[in-house]
From TrEMBL:
A cellular component annotation (GO) from this entry: cytoplasm
Domain of life the protein comes from: Bacteria
Record-given protein name: GH3 auxin-responsive promoter
Domain GH3 middle: 299-373
Residue stretches making up the GH3 C-terminal domain: 390-493
InterPro entries on file: GH3, GH3_C, GH3_M
GO molecular function, one term: acid-amino acid ligase activity
């Protein structure tokens, strides 16, 4: 295997050198938009919004913005995507072979995102760029001799009445892996096809000693549970006793920082964390350089991006888009500023709001961090708490108490007097005494808007602590266990009531 490691590493070096020269971000994005419009100009969407005429414009991007409105999922689905199950050439040529059921955290039910062949190719292309970027990290050849464990959702897809296959995007990706992936891909297609999460993880734990894992990809919460189960089953002190070449974790789906301490606890040697922005709507960005968790935007891979300022120029006080928000291109954004992301893609999404808020960490190359979801903006009584601010306070609370708090949920609810309070539920083994007071202090010191709200309409905060087992039981009750599942950090009052009732019954 040593010679294979040398060859793979040498191949990555050669490929990366050929790809080292790129167009400017603005040129890349204009080229991507032009190609998307050309391919979709004869679709129903393209004809309705005059793609032919837009393509003749001397200012392509401005014309595109003028003619095509911004869409959220409900609007895109009801007006366009729902027709694709019966008709061809709606928002993209032909009909999609798959629909990705988004396991995201917003909405009352799963979204259904069309997945085209061209879209599948873009995800593989971005994945290849990520692999080529590994040369920047100077990993040893042992990494390239080892195997990759991808903890996806089940690759067993459902067929609807129209014959389309449906599943979560990670399961769709795995189901379409070519046979030669079996050389390095684990747990393999047979185990990946197991629908039940617990059965799948038990099968992984059973076969773990037979594998030489160098890299793992998945959502931190579920990867952590899997690794802990492997350690318990084989009575290990740490995961490196069974996988000494484990060096890389490609994290995605949620912020990693609240899991860092628990990952360090089960590893004998440090591992490199790469962040990835892989959603049902696309493989949007990935960490491409060492010593940072910022992610390079995939500007040359079939996506066109736009950016709405996450302030009064783009959103209202509830975090919802204005009817006519200011919209920037890649050449107009600023380092340190937050934006709501818009995406146009070869899946037939056009000026589509994914629901994520990103911040630019650099412009050359454009690198971003996800700072939260628009729906994770808690501002019912003017507290203006973003997901990033809440994460920071929870990390500080965990440090003060000498523990870890991986997950949390919060909602603005009314107490028995009809006043608003913030109800928090923390997933941890920490004692609950004094937590509310300390969390309140941390949030006040970090956010002046929250401090003002606490002196006025926000009358109190309440904190409940539940165990990891209770949390996973709650997810299981709601069919949200395993794979790519993410739990909403900010809940509405009804969701929080349901969670509290579950806790009381348990």
């Amino acid at each position: 295997m040593a010679i294979i490691g040398k060859l793979v590493k040498a191949g990555i070096d050669i490929t990366a050198k050929f790809q080292s020269v790129e167009d400017s971000p603005q040129s890349s994005q204009e080229n991507q938009l032009r190609e998307l419009l050309n391919q979709a100009k004869n679709t129903a969407f393209g004809k309705y919004y005059g793609f032919e005429e837009i393509l003749k414009s001397t200012d392509l991007i401005s014309a595109f913005r003028k003619e095509v409105p911004i869409f959220n999922y409900e609007e895109m689905h009801e007006q366009w995507w729902a027709r694709q199950e019966r008709l061809e050439d709606i928002t993209w040529p032909g009909r999609p072979d798959f629909f990705a059921r988004s396991s995201g955290t917003t909405g009352k039910s799963s979204k259904r995102i069309p997945i085209t062949n061209e879209f599948m190719a873009t995800m593989q292309s971005v994945g290849s760029s990520l692999i080529n970027s590994l040369r920047e990290f100077n990993f040893p050849e042992t990494l390239f001799e080892s195997e990759v464990l991808m903890l996806s959702s089940s690759s067993t897809l459902d067929k609807n009445e129209q014959g389309f296959e449906e599943g979560e995007i990670s399961g769709i990706n795995v189901s379409n892996f070519p046979d030669w992936y079996d050389i390095f891909y684990r747990p393999g297609k047979e185990i990946a096809a197991i629908k039940d999460w617990d059965e799948r993880v038990e099968a992984i734990a059973e076969q773990a000693p037979d594998w030489n894992i160098g890299a793992i990809a998945g959502i931190p919460s579920w990867v952590l549970l899997m690794l802990q189960r492997i350690i318990a089953r084989h009575q290990l002190n740490n995961i490196h006793e069974i996988w000494p070449n484990f060096q890389v974790f490609a994290s995605g789906g949620v912020a990693f920082e609240t899991y860092r301490e628990d990952f360090e606890a089960i590893c004998k040697t440090p591992i490199t964390i790469l962040d990835t922005y892989l959603a049902s709507e696309g493989f949007i960005a990935y960490t491409s350089k060492p010593d940072t968790m910022a992610m390079k935007l995939a500007l040359n891979h079939g996506y066109f991006f736009e950016f709405i300022p996450f302030d009064k120029r783009g959103i209202n006080e509830s975090g919802e888009l204005l009817s006519d928000p200011l919209v920037f291109g890649i050449n107009e954004v600023e380092v340190g500023e937050e934006y709501v992301l818009l995406l146009s893609s070869c899946a037939g999404a056009w000026r589509y709001t994914i629901g994520d808020v990103i911040r630019f960490e650099s412009l050359n190359p454009p690198q971003i961090k996800i700072t939260g979801r628009t729906k994770f903006f808690l501002n019912v009584v003017g507290s203006q708490l973003s997901e990033e601010k809440m994460d920071k306070a929870i990390l500080e609370l965990a440090e003060v108490n000498g523990t870890s708090i991986n997950e949390y949920m919060v909602a603005a609810v009314k107490n028995e007097n009809g006043d608003y309070i913030h109800q928090w539920v923390l997933v941890s083994d920490v004692a609950s005494d004094g937590l509310a007071e300390k969390l309140d202090e941390l949030l006040k010191s970090a956010n002046k808007n929250y401090s003002v709200a606490r002196s006025q309409a926000l009358k109190d905060i309440s904190v409940k602590v539940i165990s990891k087992d209770q949390y996973t039981d709650y997810l299981a009750q709601n069919n949200k266990k395993g794979g790519q599942t993410k739990t909403p950090k900010v809940m509405n009052a009804d969701k929080m009531k349901s969670l509290l009732e579950f806790i009381d019954r348990a």
